[in-house]
Amino acid sequence: QVRLVESGGGSVQAGGSLRLSCTASGDTSCSRGMSWYRQAPGKEREYVSGIDQAGRYYAESVKGRFTISQDNSKRTVYLQMSSLKPEDTAMYYCRCLVSGPPYKYEGQGTQVTVSS
């Protein structure tokens, strides 16, 4: 089992920055990596960024503006978001990928609101 707790969301003006954090706890390691997804009202959940032993990955819409990193000692993954746009407004969810069933765990989300 893995429990994920996201934090760091909030309201900012366009052009501002936020740093999201996601801390994992439990007896299972996120051995296949961790990632961030987001879902805006009325839209499908979409991939934002991920990190694993092979590298870091970004959706085209956030490349150059968002940076994912992790602190393994704290079992925490971060998403540094800069140059935020109103279209970045969404609930952001952290996901932990594991090698066996259920293969993934997801947190409750943290809200990011960007005003123009």
Poorly predicted residue ranges: none
Mean pLDDT: 96
H/E element sequence = EEEEEEEEEEE
Straight-line N-to-C gap: 40 Å
Q: What would the principal axes of the Cα set say about the shape?
A: globular
Helix content: under 10%
What's the main sheet like? 7 strands, mixed
Radius of gyration over C-alpha positions, nearest whole angstrom: 14 Å
Number of strands: 11
> How much β-strand is present in the residues?
over 45%
Helix-and-strand structural type: mainly beta
How many distinct helices?
0
Structure description:
With 116 residues, this protein is mainly β. The chain has strands at residues 2-7, 10-13, 18-26, 33-39, 46-52, 55-58, 66-71, 76-81, 90-97, 104-106, 110-115. The strands form 2 sheets. Strands 2, 4, 5, 6, 9, 10 and 11 form a 7-stranded mixed sheet that branches. The protein has a 4-stranded antiparallel sheet with strand order 1-3-8-7, with no helix packed on it. The radius of gyration is 14 Å and the shape is globular. The chain starts with a strand and ends with a strand.
